[in-house]
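Lab meeting minutes (informal)
Scribe: AK
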Amino acid sequence: MTDIIQLLPDHVANQIAAGEVVQRPASVVKELLENAIDANATLIKLIIKDAGKTLVQVIDNGKGMSTTDARMSFERHATSKIRTAEDLFQLHTKGFRGEALASIAAIAHVELKTKQEHDDVGTAIEMEGSKIVSQEVVATPKGTSVSVKNLFFNIPARRNFLKSVTVELRHVIDEFHRVALAHPQISFVFYNNGSETFNLPISNFRQRIVNIFGNKTNEKLVPVEEETEVLKIVGFVGKPEFAKKTRGEQYFFVNNRFIKSAYLNHAIVSAFDGLLKNGTHPSYFLNLYVNPQTIDINIHPTKTEVKFDDEHTLYALVRSAVKHSLGQFNIAPVLDFERDPNLDTPYGYKNTTTNAPKIEVDRSFNPFKNDTKSGKQTTVFRPTPNNWDSIYVGLESKGNDTKKDIRELHFESEEQTVSLFENENEAVQTNTTYQIHNKYIVSTIKSGMLVIDQHRAHQRILYEDFLKNMTIKEATSQQLLFPLQLHFSKQDIEIINQLKDDLEHTGFVFSNVKEETVAITGVPVGVPESEVSIILEQLISDVENEVPDSNFSATDLLAKSMAKSLAIKTGQSLQKDEQEHLVNKLFACKEPNVSPTNRNTFITMSVDELDKKFI
């Protein structure tokens, strides 16, 4: 029998490695930005075209590479960060696996230009699919420039799995935010399709957060700071009243490296216990500094998951630090057992009696005194307890006129409400709907019983209404007495501008859309003013995450998102007429069987099925 095991060719091995390192354009952005940071750059420029599908370019002013290093950087497992296996537990740099450039070069067209400070000229290398196309001397400024073009050009199947430009751009921006937030001491500039999206100067951590997420973010932040032998925490959490429906603004950085940790996230949520509304998530930007020997970063190819030696201690420290900050800045109620001596009674007044305040009344004052200036005589009555009946003196002579006046008086009657039904008994008899646990509506049908999920049913009703209004462009709008000012980040404003026309067809009226502010003067009929910001936040989140997928139109996505936000929630009590109206509207829909997310809106149970339950 012949041997069947053989070594893979280098270009195949590189493509397999690329599958672990490069999942989408955002992965390339992350690797190139981290390499620029390791090169001690103070200014990093990121240039993106078509969400990174066409071009990802990173330019830095770091220390650059020699000609030999430039060529070696494209070899597999080539790195300057570690030498021995023990170095994996003393990491102070970003990239250490030595696979980034080799993996990227295997699936894209890569152009590298680099020069060290003391050299007169630099080196330019072009590669296509792990093959060197050219290497030559070039005039270039100090630092390194890496251009990655036509990602997955030799793996069409992987390219077809990429999402739309909007979704891929969102992932690129997320990676840019993670790197920029972890390094406020470095200046970052981000260009998207030729326009400058972010220009982040060198600053402190708080200012970096504000520069990324908008000036309104500054008033939402609560500082968190704690230092122990095990852990040092420095950062900010968002105030509970600014909690969002999405998990967008949640960042953990361990030794200046972004990580994801559901365990530590639970510690934050437990610290906010009792302060958040249902369905909302707190914002946090926390830097955690631990001994590098106590963590293992090399457990995931993207290095976003970290293994801690003592997770329970970190959990307790993070939770207590956040809870302490919320109480210290009067965000959460606390019990204060310390007595303020400034509020004590001075010694000189301890044994003295308190004099009650006196009230002086002018007993000679009479508001009904004679008005001699106008020439009118006013009769003054001064009834006393003994002669109270004197108040009626003088009215006997005008008795007839008084009766006449009383007969001519008209009294305003209370408003009478007319019943919707001519006979209340008939209304009770015709009612066939009942609500169970404020969640389901039960109605009788000829064959048995109908059970309707009120939330999903209302979603279907609203979805078809919004879709109809946006299609025929005849939505009605209710004007607001005062314009509603909402604040969003720059990338969220771009999404709102994309959906502005469709939103206006549903009934929204925008008076002004600026860089970070949206002014709304009209909303669709039936939409509460307090729900507008929630609707737009949910809509932005759905567009960024492409819910549903790219095969659906923006109009369909908008109708689904608004229906989900405005539908009757589970737990809401409905009156009898509201229940009947919901049932009638549901079965007037084109597709009453399923919700906009393809879930059943109702189930039926026949009499035979009910009978079997009692056998």
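Next up, CB showed the second protein from the same session:
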Amino acid sequence: MPPPYQHLFGPVASRRFGRSLGVDLQADGVKRCTLSCVFCQLGPTPATTIERRADVPIEKVLAELDDWKRLGGTADFITLAGSGEPTLHPRFGEVFDWVRRETAVRSLLLSNGSLFTLDAVRRDAARADVVKVSLHAWDAASFARIARPHPSLAFDAIVEGYRRFRAIFAGELIVEVFIVPGLNDLEWQADRIAALLRDVAPDRIQLNSAARPPADSSVRAVSPARLRELAQRFTPAAETPEAAINATSPPPRDPELAEAVAALVRRHPADLGALCATFGQDAASVRALLHDLAAEGRIALALRDNVWHAGPPVDAATVVSVPPLLLASASPRRRKLLAELGLAFEVLPVSAPEIHDPSDPVGTVARNAVAKHDAARALRPDAVLIAADTLVWFEGRLIGKPADLEDAAKLLRAFSGRTQTVFTAVALSMPGQAPDLRIEASCVHFRKLEEAVIQEYLKRTKPLDRAGAYDIDENGDLLIAGYDGSYSNIMGLPVESVRDWLRAQNYDAPAASGR
């Protein structure tokens, strides 16, 4: 077995690429990435970046590859991957040149694709035999929720970069779609991603789901059955993860095994089964070794769904204590919207005196939001607070919840062919600060509603707990012709305002179990 290297790891037993020798172009295994995806197996990105720089001399990487070849190394793929985004290295394409020149092995680039907006990146990526990029979102808002990108990255430009790359790339192009419950696992969301991919025309599409502990511990795996359902919505039909790992490598000698395992999982977190397959060892031996390495602080070890997962050690010096995030509302729609931002938070329903002034809808929501905020602050002085108040304003009236189904039908008849305005005020504050108010207004344009449509909507939807007797997010297409402004504001919480405020505070909510 070759000695442990600084920049090479494995070969790893990969579910989809056989035995893969990894090449890591990050310095000292420190994660540098353009994104901080909620599902990333390497944990959160310390600080997203788009700066392309050669932290690792490419000559040292190629020298290690020469040594690996000299010692008789074998693999199915030589893969640029590791502890960050490989295309941040400006000379990454030279690895593919070495592979083609020196071996009969296929080369593989595993990239998030965010820098395919650059001509130089597309040109160098085209030197690989196989390129795998990602597309987990369908627009800028969903991209922000799932990938948490560097602020300069534009979703539409990335997709256009994929189209341009397809036009120049003669190799095999694979697009991975990582499915995250609550963020992109609905049929219409998969359909919108699939529509974008039809223009890109990849050779293969692969669905993935959380199999190792993610950056955000609230992220859960999608069932294999659900993945198979969603796979059929893509063209070509997407592949789903395979159950078995067949590739194995010769068992290392005992003195080398600990170093080899620690070096591998620092860059490529793996579960117990994958490590057994990679090193040709039985589960009991590898499990005992993992516990020893974890006790020494050389790796992190976690038990999830009764499966042991090993990854890079947690640097206690980088763990920053942050105040908890608290939503002062019992609204299930606000909880859903906040969760879709990828934030962990607590819920504290509060009661506060409210005003209802039809002549001043903005003042009404502002005063009510602040009242809720102050009630929550009295109970939780330690938290970052989000409190909100939403109302529907229609032709000089404030519209509340219907008293019964007949009242709901009466409201919808009144809305037919007309426009109403939804106002939301959000009061936000860090501990010890006065509330910062953000107010959004969105216009909702109703279709001409036939009585049969109104009755069908009331059958499909529970209208009595919704202001105005409708919910744009539940069968709203029956009623609504269009809207202006923030969609999430109409649901009760303008997530764009919340996200922008949190970013301005440099606040990143911890995961439920702590990051």
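CB comment: Confidence is low (pLDDT under 50) at residues 243-253, 316-320, 511-515.
No objections, moving on.
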